[in-house]
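task queued by scheduler; priority normal; single chain, no ligands, no partner chains; default sampling; output format set to structure tokens
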Amino acid sequence: MPAQQKKIIFCIAGVLSFACALGTAAAIGTQLWVKGTILCKTGALLVNATGQELEKFIGKIQYGLFYGERVRQCGLGGRPFQFSFFPDLLKIIPASIHVSVILFCTVLIVFALVGAGFFMFNAFGSPYETLHGPVGLYLWSFIACSCGCLIMILFSSEVKIHHLSEKIANFREGSFTFKTHSEHFANSFWIILVCSLVHFLNALLIRFAGFEFPFSKSKDSGTITGAADLMY
């Protein structure tokens, strides 16, 4: 492939990596990871609410990695409550998983920026070997993509398997019991998915630029070297 086209491809990949870093940083600071509704089970059972009456006992909840908001509704109107994961909810949530999600988000941002820098360096500079050349570009893209996948897996398990929404809804509730009525992942979660796909796309762009995958020819080169050694 001509050098000019390679520069264009590397520039596109660098811009995409930088955009992913900014998007992930913005996603971390929002409370738009999960949105849902919570049912005041105790209040609904007390009055045997059904149909439209049940709507008076359905509140709302949304949260991110650091803070969120829930609207408690038990037949007397909505009562909003702001909460923070640190330190308020630290004792009731799976803290190790939650902290791991935040750490992997940080790693994703770092390696997305590193990848963007090396893409630009390869576009406008003279690429070095190993970590500065094609192998390094594959490495940064692979690490960033892997971190994005781990973030989604860990956070999904925290929400679905450990019932994070119900734990938050029942935080500091004595006589009332809340149950998750509906929940879905919001914009910030899907930003992480898009970023993972972008880093996978970057790896394809590197291949499209004419670079082989790392170590793809290691067996052939080893065979040739061994034959040369036997000749001498």
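post-processing summary
- Residues 218-232 have pLDDT under 50 and may be disordered.
- The longest strand covers residues 178-185.
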